[in-house]
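User: Hi! I have a protein structure encoded as tokens and I'd like to know what sequence might fold into it. I'm fairly new to this, so please keep things simple.
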């Protein structure tokens, strides 16, 4: 039942991360097309050969999306943390097992549990630092340069996703240790990117 909840949470976060990435891709495409159309309208050859067309293109107001990089920066940070729970739950992190593949299964199980606990501690540390950064940004009222939205909004989104990642990471660490102690499988089969 707890594994089922973690699976749903991880998948929900991955869907949100995917949705944010899709919006960001569309935003970047619109911005690039706008920048290209604006450059086309300012092209000297076009202004000389067809000044009416150049003026018409520029009159539409085409150009890059203002603050696109600010939105991409905030959205990518959220997406990274949103994908982390599903990756963690299904052992999707890249591993290099050049030497460990020669070790007995039990030793590898101990190593997997050790690294799971260590990664969980790192995720918890990052989540804590994100919360502190968010509180600092709320306190100083810092905003982005172009769009002037409060920077803490980006921190809050990343913190929320990191909090979900922390919940799943703690579950994974405890499950790996209990699995090691009991021998019962408590985690989904790993889909890791071993090299």
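Assistant: Happy to help. Inverse folding works backwards from shape to sequence: for each of the 195 positions I chose a residue that suits the local structure. Here it is:
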């Amino acid at each position: 039942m707890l594994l089922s909840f973690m699976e749903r949470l991880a998948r929900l976060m991955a869907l949100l991360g995917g949705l944010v990435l899709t919006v960001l891709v569309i935003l970047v495409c619109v911005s690039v097309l706008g920048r290209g159309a604006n450059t086309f309208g300012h092209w000297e050859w076009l202004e000389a050969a067809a000044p009416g067309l150049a003026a018409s293109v520029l009159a539409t107001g085409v150009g890059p999306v203002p603050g696109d990089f600010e939105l991409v920066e905030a959205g990518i940070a959220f997406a990274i943390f949103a994908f982390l729970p599903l990756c963690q739950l299904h052992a999707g992190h890249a591993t290099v097992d050049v030497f460990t593949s020669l070790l007995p299964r039990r030793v590898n199980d101990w190593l997997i549990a050790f690294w799971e606990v260590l990664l969980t501690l790192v995720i918890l540390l990052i989540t804590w630092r994100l919360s502190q950064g968010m509180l600092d940004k709320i306190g100083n009222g810092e905003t982005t340069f172009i769009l002037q939205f409060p920077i803490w909004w980006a921190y809050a989104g990343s913190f929320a996703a990191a909090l979900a990642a922390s919940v799943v990471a703690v579950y994974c660490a405890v499950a790996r240790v209990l699995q090691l102690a009991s021998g019962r499988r408590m985690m989904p089969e790993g889909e890791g990117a071993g090299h």
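A useful reference point when you look it over: Helices lie at 2-41, 44-49, 51-59, 68-89, 105-140, 151-182. Feel free to ask if any position seems puzzling.
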